[in-house]
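Exercise 7.
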Amino acid sequence: MKEQDIKNILISKFKVAVILPCYNEEVAIHKTVTDFKQQLPESVIYVFDNNSTDHTAEYARTAGAIVVHVSKKGKGNVVRRMFADINADIYLMADGDATYDADSASNLIKKLIDESLDMVVGCRADQGENENYRRGHRLGNRMLTSSVRMIFGGEFTDMLSGYRAFSRRYVKSFPNLSTGFEIETELTIHALELRMPYGELVTPYNARLEGSFSELSTYRDGIRILKTIGRLYRVERPLQFFSIIGFIFAFASILISLPILQEYLVTGLVPRLPTAVLSVGLMLSAQLAIVCGIVLDNVTRGRQELRRIAYLGVQGVPVLEDYNTL
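Solution. The predicted structure, written as C-alpha cells, is:
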C-alpha cells in the first residue's frame, strides 16, 4: 500500500476541518479549495470570507467549500469565528491565496497524530523564488521569531506562518484577543504558555498567482506584531516586565543621588533638595513596580491554572491503536 494511501486511511478516522480565512482572493481561492479537497477528500473545507468585494465567496462555493461570512475586518476576528463555530477532531488552517502547499496537508496532520501534538506549524521554504517574500519580510520574521524565543522560550523557527494543524483541545482553549495579522503570534505564545506539545514541519511556500495581492503591510503589521509581543510579555511575564522597570528606576535614583550623598558626607548639607526628592521618588517608584510585578505574577499563575484546566477539559486527538500495520 502506498504511503499516501496509508495517510488517507489514518486521517479518515478523524473529523478534519480545513479552515481558510479569505479577503479578496478570487484569483486563488478556487485552486486552493480544489487542491485541499484533492489531498484531504474526507475533510470539510470552510472558507471564512471577511467582507470580500470580489467573487471570492462565489468561486469558493463553486469549488465545493462551505462559505461563512465574517463582518468584522481582520484575520484575528476571522480566526475567532472559525475556532468558535467549527467542531472537528483536527483543524487545518491555511490562507486562501494558494501559497501554502496543499500536498503537505496530510503530513502536517499525520505528524499531529503520530506525536500526539496540539499544534504543528508548517515552516515556509520558498523554493528559491524571491518574490514569495516581499522586501523586509524575511528579516522581520527572523527578528520577531527570535524575540518570542528569547522572551517565552520554545524552538519555533517560523512563528508567523499561517499554515498550521491544531487539535480540538488547542482550538477550544484558545482565548484569541487579536484582531489582525498578529494572530499567529498569539497562537504561538498560547502553546508556549500552556506548555502544549507542538512541532514544526518544513513545507514548500509558493509565489502568489498572477493578479493576486497580499493585504499584509510589512511595517504597519510588523509594528502591530511587536506591540502584541510586548503586551503578552507584560501579561504573561509580569514579574520580569515590572522588575525591569523597577531596576531602571532604581539605577536612575542611585545615579543622581551619588553626588548629593558625596556632598552630604563632606559638608553635612543637602543643597540640591529637588534632586534629592527626585531620587527618593524614583526609588519609591522602583519598589512599587517590583511589588506590582509580584502581585500580578500571582494573578497570572492563577489565570494560567484556569486556562490549563479549561485545556484539559477538552478531548484531544484520540489515540488510535497500532495503525502502522495498515
